[in-house]
Design brief:
With 87 residues, this protein is mainly alpha-helical. The protein has a domain at 1-51. It is built from 4 helices and no strands.
C-alpha cells in the first residue's frame, strides 16, 4: 500500500512539473523576454562587426610550392609484382 502511495506521489509530482514548465515556457512574458533578448543580441553583433578593425594582408609569397609528387615518384621503389599482373 505504501509503495502505491509513493508511486502516485512521484507521478503527480512529475505531471505538476511538466504542467508548470509548459505554462512558463509558453507564457507571454517568457516569449517577450526571449524575443527581446534575441533582438538585443542581434543588434550587439551588428555593432561589433562594424567596429572591427581591418588588418592589412601581409601573407603574400609565404607559400613555397614544392614538387613533392615528382620527388616521390623518383624515390619510389619499383616492384616486379606489378609487372607480373600486367602480363
Amino acid at each position: 500500500m505504501l509503495n502505491k502511495i509513493i508511486n502516485i506521489f512521484y507521478l503527480t509530482s512529475f505531471f505538476i512539473f511538466v504542467i508548470l514548465t509548459t505554462n512558463y515556457y509558453f507564457s507571454d512574458k517568457n516569449v517577450k523576454n526571449t524575443n527581446k533578448s534575441r533582438s538585443l543580441y542581434s543588434v550587439k553583433i551588428d555593432n561589433d562587426t562594424y567596429n572591427l578593425p581591418l588588418l592589412l594582408n601581409d601573407t603574400s609569397d609565404i607559400i613555397e610550392y614544392k614538387n613533392g609528387i615528382e620527388d616521390y615518384k623518383k624515390k619510389k621503389k619499383n616492384y616486379k609484382f606489378w609487372d607480373l599482373i600486367k602480363r
